[in-house]
Amino acid sequence: MNAVLEKGIIKMIKIIISLLFGMMAPAVLADTPKSPNILFIIMDDVGVDQMKSFGYGGVTPPAMTNIDQIAASGIRFRNTWSMPACTPSRAVFFEGRFPLRTHIRGGARSL
After folding, report:
1. pTM surpassing 0.70?
2. Distance CA 29, CA 42 (A)
3. What is the DSSP string of 58-80?
4. Could you tell me which residue, 31 or 21, shows the higher pLDDT?
5. N or C terminus of the chain with fewer C-beta within 10 Å?
């Protein structure tokens, strides 16, 4: 074979291999999962009607400096949920399962 032809074939093979690796790179990078952005805030006996950042106009709002700073930066937590009693909520948090699956439906019974 001609030396010029061999160099051209080798160069073409290198280009094809480079293109194949270049096309695979986005697929490899896209497969890396991102960590979820989750923030747990645990409060006891507090509702949004008592929070200054949600418009509480009472005499003495509770001191929630970190929550107020987060709200002042433009982040409002509007998609939240809770169980009506604290014991099922804590069970959900510690078990990582739906309330129905924890079999804890009410508060602790007195002895």
Report:
1. no
2. 35
3. SSS----HHHHHHHHTT----S-
4. 21
5. C
